[in-house]
Structures are given as C-alpha cells and as structure tokens.
C-alpha cells in the first residue's frame, strides 16, 4: 500500500495536469453542437452574402429563438429523464386561448395570457403527476395528452368559430403593449431584431444558471441519472420532475403567446410535429435520450443550427424540402459525435 | 458504547430472521458482523439503520432505549449506512454526488465553490486519493466509490457508520484500500459496523467480532479473545475448514 499523504499534500494531482484542459473542453456536452454550428455557419456564409449580413442573421435567429426557448425547457426535462410530446401542441393551445379570450370574451390581452398561463401550468402539472404517480414512461403519458390537446384545439376552435383558426387579436385591449414586449423588434446597428431573441437568451441564461448553480439543478441531473439513488439521499424526485414538466409548459405558453401576438391569429393545428424538433435540438445540443446528461446552452445551439439551416436553404435558393434531409443528417451526426465524446471522456480517466 | 443491541429479534411472518442477537458499537472501534449468506447480517443492519423495526429485545443509543422509525431518523441521530449500491449517480461529478440532497447554499444558489473545496478537503482528510473531484463518479473504481461514500457519511456528521459488505465485490487490492478508509473513519472517532462474510477482511481492522449463523449469534468476541484461525473456523464450520485453511496459508 503506497502512502497517499505525500501525494495528497499537493493541491493538484500529477495525473490531472496533462491534457486536463483539453479533456475538460471535450467532455462538455455542447461541444459537438458548437462544432456543428461553426460548420453549418461556414457553409451557408460562404455560399450566401445575405446569410452573413446583419439582416440575414436577424432572419435566421428568429426561428432559432422560438425553437430555442422550447428546446431549452425540453433539454432540462430530458436531463431529468423524461420526455414531453405534448409541448408542441401546447404552444397552439395557449395561443388559441389568448386569442379566443381576447377577441370573443372581452378580456384584455394580459388577462387572457394569464389565463393561458394557468391552463398551461395545469397541463404541465397533470403530465408530471401522471408520470410520477403511475411510473409509466413519459413518452406514453405525454403522447396521450398530446393527442387530447390536439383534439381539444381543433374541436373547440371549430365549435366556436366554424373554422380552424381564431383571429383578430389586433383589436383587443393591451395588444400593442403586449406585442412590443413579446413580439416586437429592436434595432441593433440599424437592423431590426425580434424581441423573442432576447427572451430566448434570457431563458437560456436562467436555465443554465439553474442547472449548474442551484440545488434544483443538481437534483435534475440526479433524477435523470439514477432516480432510485437520488431518492435514497433525500432528493425530492417527484417534485423535481413535476416542476420540470411545468417548466416545459411555461415555455410553451411563452412561445404560444409570442406567436399569437406576432401573427394576431392562430391556426388550430399549430405546433403539431414540433415536439420532435425540440427533442432533436436538445439531442444535437448533447442531451442523452436516457437522461442525466446534457446542457441548456447546447439545446440553444441546436436551435441555432436549425434556424441557420431553415433559412439558409431558402437563401441558397434550394428547395425547402431538403431541409428535413439535412435535419436528419445533423441528428445522426450529433448523436454519434456525442457518444464518441462521452466515451472518450469516461475511458481516458480510468 | 454509542449503539447497543440486546437480545434483538425479528420475524417476517413465520420466518425467524434474527433471534436473540446482542452487539455493541463503541466510538473509535470497529465491530465486525460476520456470517455466511442468510445468516441474518442484513436483517441486523436494517434494524440498526432504521429500515426494519425489531420485535424482540432492546436497542440502545447512548444508553437510552430507542426504536428507529425509519432511515431518516437513524440518519438524524447520527447513524449512517453505506449500502453496496451506494446511492451515487455515475454521470455526475464527485463533488455533485458528495453533496447530493444536502447541497450547501449561498443565497438562492448552490455554493459550488464551497462544495468543490469541501469535497476535496474531506476526501483528502480521509486520505482518499481522487485525481479530480470534477470527474464523473462512473469513472471511479469500485473501491474509490466506496471510499467517497464513506467520506460523505463522515462529513455529514455520522457517529455510527454501517458498511454493508463494502469489500465483497472488490479485488484484493481494492478491498485493502477500503479497509484503510474504514480504519481512518475509526481513527476519527466513529463507531464502525463492518458487515462482511470474509474473515480475512474483518480480522485486521476489527476490534469486536459478532458471528451470525442461521439467524442466531455464535458469540461476540473481543480481538484478544479470538485468533484469525478461530474466527475463520467459527464462521465456516468444520466441513470447509480445511479448504479455507489452505487458502489462508497461501495468502500469508
């Protein structure tokens, strides 16, 4: 048995000195996404002058922002070991509630948004309760709420309007103020940028802080990594998961409100199919499908890649149909890269 | 004597899992609980750690009779248990695991700097040679994980440390490492209960030895009263003695 006293005396161990910085960079979950973002940017920027102009950047940051808000919330949930397939359609539900209440029931926009928030948090709470109480896979539980919300969105909209959309939010009281806050633009260097971009940055920053610098963040990693072990040391696992589902619902409310205020009308089928885009962005950003690992910044970068490809293909004059092909390729590459990086990170330390 | 069991018994339905077992845990001493599989070792430690309640005999903590309602109460009274599966999250770093569930706070935030520093200090104080507290627990060896779990229990104010077969899944060298940390915990004044079925692990570090067989006690011995050979013989019984002696001879 060698004595550890001598080695323990120094602050750093000789075994971490070499390659420590490189490895620390490599094991960051968002590394793959950062490399992907740089490659995608370099590709489109070299092909299109519009793409790299301030106006172009404002253009592709816009879809990145609304997707990014959702992807960050979904990333937290996935790190916590759960999925939410109802998140996409919930953006539609909240938008429909805001427009319907503000145009047909005389509420001002702010009150309508408040009601939509309460409903959204209720849906998130129900999702969380069902998952934690029944121990069923959240994939199935939220698939159920997804389908139910889809039916409600269409059914109620048709019953009220006879069509599949609600519109006319512009006439509602408080519209201009709410729009300025959530769906307006700000001038940066003479180029108008969507305010949603600021909300997205704020959501990313708060989520990163919670994840890395709060007890709740530690609990999120723990319940996703090994729920039994987390419970054994006193982590309130059910409470953490329910809060994560409610966070996702909150993000859906924010995005639903932004989109409703921007377009002043909401289609009853909006948001359907988006739930997988959120998961894809989170996975490109380094989240493990099995939970316990990932980052909020990574999910945001995944959303940026999505936004760049979405608009870049249009700038290049390509057929937009190629977009999903590109997205699928990115997803596969990201998953493979993440796996390699993680393996390297774990093996090299033995 | 911090913790003492007198004539403890436990039945599950018609099964007598434990019958009239007595043992004591002193500060700065290691009490080893030995026995083959099914001897009642886990029932005994589950009573000591509050998971089960005894239905015969008395349990005394600091000389007062207690009945532990659950693991949380045991923990609050300073009885910490490190189970084989350890309750650690492989993908999380050592310092995050160290404070999981009891994170130090600074305002609203998790005091990350303090957590890192204290985790490193506590591990060093136990003489635990972890390369980097930022590395995921999944990259540690089995012995290192046991050691971190022991250091965590010590840090969170355990007076009695119950270790459930900490060496059973480990190789010889790794087991030696864990035994050394058991000795360190003892030297820091904790009363240690060390459960094992390996007398070679128990004898070097133990001060008292309780041998269980089929739910009953074969006696509690001080180190002066029993030799390693006698302990092995007591545990194994006559039939396997010869083979075990052979093993023992090769190890020495």
TrEMBL record, chain A:
<keyword id="KW-1133">Transmembrane helix</keyword>
<dbReference type="InterPro" id="IPR001851">
    <property type="entry name" value="ABC_transp_permease"/>
</dbReference>
<keyword id="KW-0762">Sugar transport</keyword>
<feature type="transmembrane region" description="Helical">
    <location>
        <begin position="57"/>
        <end position="78"/>
    </location>
</feature>
<feature type="transmembrane region" description="Helical">
    <location>
        <begin position="322"/>
        <end position="341"/>
    </location>
</feature>
<keyword id="KW-1003">Cell membrane</keyword>
<keyword id="KW-0472">Membrane</keyword>
<feature type="transmembrane region" description="Helical">
    <location>
        <begin position="195"/>
        <end position="212"/>
    </location>
</feature>
<keyword id="KW-0813">Transport</keyword>
<comment type="function">
    <text>Part of the binding-protein-dependent transport system for D-xylose. Probably responsible for the translocation of the substrate across the membrane.</text>
</comment>
<feature type="transmembrane region" description="Helical">
    <location>
        <begin position="276"/>
        <end position="302"/>
    </location>
</feature>
<protein>
    <recommendedName>
        <fullName>Xylose transport system permease protein XylH</fullName>
    </recommendedName>
</protein>
<keyword id="KW-0997">Cell inner membrane</keyword>
<feature type="transmembrane region" description="Helical">
    <location>
        <begin position="109"/>
        <end position="130"/>
    </location>
</feature>
<feature type="transmembrane region" description="Helical">
    <location>
        <begin position="31"/>
        <end position="51"/>
    </location>
</feature>
<keyword id="KW-0812">Transmembrane</keyword>
<dbReference type="Pfam" id="PF02653">
    <property type="entry name" value="BPD_transp_2"/>
</dbReference>
<feature type="transmembrane region" description="Helical">
    <location>
        <begin position="242"/>
        <end position="264"/>
    </location>
</feature>
<feature type="transmembrane region" description="Helical">
    <location>
        <begin position="85"/>
        <end position="103"/>
    </location>
</feature>
